[in-house]
Structure prediction request, 723 residues.
Amino acid sequence: MKLRRRTFLGAGVTAVATGSLISCARGTAEWRFFTAAEARTVDAICDHLIPADQDPGAKQAGVVNYIDIQLTKAFRRHRAAYRKGLAGVDTASRAKFSKAFADLSPEQQREVLSVVEQDSKAFFDLILTHTRQGFYGDPRHGGNRRMASWKMLGLPFPQVRGRQHYDEPKAG
Amino acid sequence: MALKHVNAVIVGAGAGGGVVAKELSTAGLSVVLLERGKWYSAADCRKDDLYNQRTSALGARFGPDEERNPRVVVDDQGRETIALPSDGTYSNNAACVGGGTFSYGAQAWRYMEKDFRMRSTYGAVEGSTLEDWPIGYHDLEPFYEKAEWEMGVSGDDTDNIFKAPRRKPLPMPPLPPGQEHQILQPAARRLGLHPFDIPMLRNTVPYNGRRSCMRCRWCVGFACEVDARTGTHNTVIPAALASGNCELRTECMSKEILLDARGQAKAIAYFDAANRLQEQTADLVIVCGGAVESARLLLNSRHPLHPEGLGNRYGWVGRNLHAHAYPAATGLFDYDTYDDLGPGASIAICDYNHGNPGLAGGGMLANEFIRLPYQFMTQVPPWVPRWGQAHKDFVRQAYKRTVVIMGPVQEIPVFDARVQVDPKVRDFWGIPVARLSGGRHPHTIEIARFLAGKAEAWLKEAGAARVWQRIPAATLSGGQHQAGTCRMGNDPKTSVVNPNCQLHDVDNVYVIDASVHVTNGGFNPALTILANAYRASQNLLKSWKGTKVTS
Prediction:
């Protein structure tokens, strides 16, 4: 266990240096469930599922952080699916382009993702659902950083706890 | 130490159990109310859009918990899977004080006269156990009124020309109309329909010592932050406790009903909050666990005289599980329809509940509650790619420009849609879990298609630029509106309880929740559960002759 933590840390430091990962609350890039390589893959997948444009996408909103946190809590039963599914994405990627998914060009990644959507539908649906949750859901769970999606949708912000909206009582 | 004997032990503090607890305890009976969940309050409103009772992405906020409460679900291919409360297939209803009424949308519908006479109105439907209720609307009317006034219902159904006769109007006015209401009302009138304000168990003015709705966007699925929404947790259950005759025990999981040598119920065996097995003796056992858990408890209560479970001599316990199929249409407008005024749902029509050509019934149509951003994912039309730029673009452009109309189809009951107890899988306490199998009747889906078409027509008339439909699948129907598994009837061979909600087989065991519904109306069932609980309690009290136990 200790050895694995060390591996995590080492990989995390590299990742922070490349600026490709979002650091977690403890100020390191040590993931709770994902290996550094897996987190990179998830991040790259999320970037396609909900891309950045004039508004942040799933990557900027920290969706990988959401999924990683939940895999230690509510999503524990999906751990095997992620481990296997992410390995499958890299396998598909290497078979087609001889590179890990995260190292492909965006066009190549899209191509691989379309294959994954066909061939590993259950995993694709799972990560798509979780990505939507992490992007559109409440920031308290680790995603939707700085309420990116709520700002995009123009929802009253900051979140108002409650409000009175009283007009004239309806006649009759 | 043995627990003190009481007159009545009630299993489940939801819509049915809450009312029964109050009626019996205020009449002087000693009552123990067992609830497997916790007692939450307005302070438990976290407004968490991923962890609530409507969107259980991270679990069902008001129970049951994921760790201890599995079920087995069998699909149409016969494949078995373990379902957890956050799974759609689980057919979950909340496990907490108040049950579904703690976090529901609070629509407070009276069923219509024909809803109690479906078989007489439409005849037999092949492949269905469609039947009349043994009681009629007029039997429930005084109790609908009692529920409306004692608990507090707002709304205005004077424009609903299809409603069954009522003696008193609703005690509170509706909320002022929001934007969707103002868009939909004139359109419905132009179509010759009869729109009106949905009756809601929601304070719109201070009532019963509680405040009025502040119209936030976190309504259905959440605790009400200002305690304006009405459930049994903030009305009848506190009244029961105030009587001094009712003890509420939370986090108590019932295991089985125990019988004496003569075949009468004598006690309930349950696991208390510390998971210790307890026996609560009582003169009466009243089962109010919801259609899945009530059936499960009866089926788990085996006795030499009742080898297949209590009330199950003819194999009807757990049968006819159904709820509501919800067809929907979403309209995309070219201007903002979103006004951030909760609860959202406010306007309805009953023009299509009955009298639809070639169809055995129908359902009410109403606008949907506010869609929170993640909930909006289900509204994205089928032609938009599921991911990538196009999906994001659509959500960004359409989120504030849609209106959704949907409605609960009165389902056509199916004998093989059922709750059993699983022979192998047990829950945390070692109790055999519910095993769900079967699906919806094809005619239910036909009615759903018809209603979706009417919803689409309404949205088009209202000016929607594009409209798309959602048709429910033919899979098993349970969830919050679950009903039918302990059917009420006069014939012990084709029903489980008599019109007084007593088991045909064991007359000191009652089932008082939506399990007894023969059919489930084309409406949200809460007010009918409440009204029937008032009615059954009154009948029970009339026949109550005091305890048989001498201490």
